Amino acid sequence: MPLVPSTNAPMRFSTAALPARAREPAIRELRERGLLPMEPLRGHPVHARLTKWFLPGASVLTGTLGGVRQDGDPRARDGSDDLFLGVNLAGSSIATQGRREATLRTGDAILLSDAGGPFTLIRPTGVRFIGVRVPRRVIAPLIVGADNASIRLIPRGTEAVRLMTRYVGAMLDAAVLTSTEVCRVVVIHLHDLVALSVGATREGAAMARARGVRAARLQAIKADITSNLVDETLAMASVAARHGVTPRYVHKLFEDEGVTYTQFVLQHRLDRALRMLRDPRYAGRRISDIAYDVGFGDLSYFNRAFRRRYSATPSDIRNTRPRDRAGP
What we know:
Structural class: alpha+beta
Number of strands: 12
Number of domains: 2
Mean pLDDT: 88
Strand content: 15-25%
Shape: globular
């Protein structure tokens, strides 16, 4: 059930544990409490799994919805003048505003404005989505046609939308948003990515590429690396090619973080090996197999690197009893 929103913690809501008869009243309660303006759709099974972040200058709603109508009525938000960018990650939705209507399929995005009047997103069947709400006054200087209140459908495959989707997935995590200052930086990057997604001015695009795009690409590349550690080579050229950038660009991204690409890969391989050595589920697995599982092709190098980082051998870590683990 929903929680009261706080500074850096999200509100979470799910119908998974509710019996079918209790789901519609739970959805209506969200509206009544002013948390999410939704209504169940008659004749459709209701299900929801949602996370909403309240950040300084943006709110982000992610998850899955089905059998509901999601409203965006400015009168319900004290006359706010916001822009809403919704992305259908999977499934279909219908957006309506006044007499205008647009259908979103997997990969499509849409820009809706409070200035155009009340709008609705109808989700009869399950849809996985991201919704970002930002103040118009902040975004307006960055985008073309800021005064245009019409529905804007953004087709699937738009690079800025993909970058924003990856960035939201990487950054909206309680372990990342540890302070108000970090939240503010994330919001600036979200503003940049929203502007690029809907059509930035020349100045806005240049600013966004220097801030939000770099941050989003770095997070996407880091996620790519950590998902492919088992690949012994994990060459920078291959990673760069997957993200449509040059190896030099990747090098510069990590250089600005104060670490090299190679150091980042090594650090995460060693950290994963450490977790596996401490995990009882891998107690029967040979240390050499764990080294190969995290991408090391040379066992001697693995042992030397591990000892340099943790001042202990892999065997020391494995043989240390849990209550004695006050070190690495």
